Amino acid sequence: MSQKKHLRIGVDLGGSKIEAIALQADGREALRKRVLTPRGDYAGTVAAVAALVQEIGDGTVGIGIPGALSRLTGLVKNANSTWLIGRPLKEDLERALGPAVRIENDANCFALSEAVDGAGAGARVVFGVILGTGVGGGIAVERRMLIGRNAIAGEWGHNPLPLPAQKDLPLPACYCGRSGCIETYLSGPGLEREHFGLTGQQRSAREVAALDGEAMSRYVERLARALAGVINLLDPDVIVLGGGLSNIERLYSDVPRVWGRYVFSDHVATRLLRNIHGDSSGVRGAAWLWNE
């Protein structure tokens, strides 16, 4: 049997890029490639994923998507890449690639990656958070994903922001059809909107973070409130941050100083950590789906 047969191939199907990686049995990276996502084009997206995997070679295939497969229909649901919603993605990819395809939510893949050999290695319960264009969450328990009966375990971003105060109003509308979702406050666009509302200045999330003004102070406090709800419910050993906003250094010192106000305990031992695998964590987690 060729070495390629032992490869674990992971694909991260994002809104702007599709990345594929091949891992050897010991977790070492053998190959990586990325292409632009054909936004709004479902058939083009399927073809791009299939072409990447076929270029890498033979192996098991795991795919992380910005949504989930419905347990009722098998179709994609809850995807912020809206052209995937209602589509038989698993069926279409298996038609193109063969039956060895597993698909899970990208935040679940991120959590799995960081639990297996990332910032959460050795921890029993890991909550993985994506802070980027959207906000997602995933749960790994003893290096295995917790998916849930409805395939929505860890969907933290579409809960309401806890304890909204006057400065949090009016509740912003979310693409999911609700208002006041955590995602609308803690995503990159949410941070940009907050800064614009306070100053009238249009700045990127990265620029707003560098300014370190009132918008960032509000961001820290809201993230602390939102994560305190996770701790009260799940009580994880580790919370690992990923996505572009995970690079904001002050989050790791300031958020734990604030979240104790909202956690139902006299002491908070949960650690807040930056991811180890960077923007490769999701694609690595997709490859590790075949450890499940």
Would you write up a description of this structure?
- A hairpin with a 3-residue loop joins β1 (8-13) and β2.
- This protein has a 5-stranded mixed beta sheet. Strands 10-9-8-11-12 form a 5-stranded mixed beta sheet, sandwiched between helices. Strands 5-6 form a two-stranded antiparallel sheet.
- The protein has 9 helices and 12 strands.
- The two termini are 23 Å apart.
- It has 292 residues and is an alpha/beta fold.
- α3 (106-117) packs across α9 (281-287), α5 packs antiparallel against α7 (214-234) and α7 (214-234) crosses α8 (251-259).
- The mean pLDDT is 92.
- It has 2 domains: 3-99, 2-Layer Sandwich (Nucleotidyltransferase, domain 5); 121-279, Nucleotidyltransferase, domain 5 (2-Layer Sandwich), CATH 3.30.420.40.
Supply the key terms.
alpha/beta, five-stranded mixed β-sheet, Nucleotidyltransferase, domain 5, about 290 residues, about 20% strand, 9 helices
**Based on the structure given, which CATH architecture of the largest domain is correct?**
2-Layer Sandwich
Main sheet: strands, sense, barrel: 5 strands, mixed
Count of helical regions: 9
Question: Cα-atom Rg, whole angstroms?
Answer: 19 Å
CATH C-level category of the largest domain: Alpha Beta
- How many strand units? 12
SSE sequence, one letter per element: EEEHEEEHEHEEEHHHHEHEH
The structural class is alpha/beta
The helix fraction, in percent, is: 25-40%
- Here the CATH topology of the largest domain equals Nucleotidyltransferase, domain 5
Strand content: 15-25%
Shape: globular
How many independent structural domains? 2
- The first-to-last residue Cα distance is 23 Å
Low-confidence stretches: none
Mean pLDDT: 92
What is the CATH homology-level superfamily of the largest domain? ATPase, nucleotide binding domain
Strand order of the largest sheet: 3-2-1-4-7
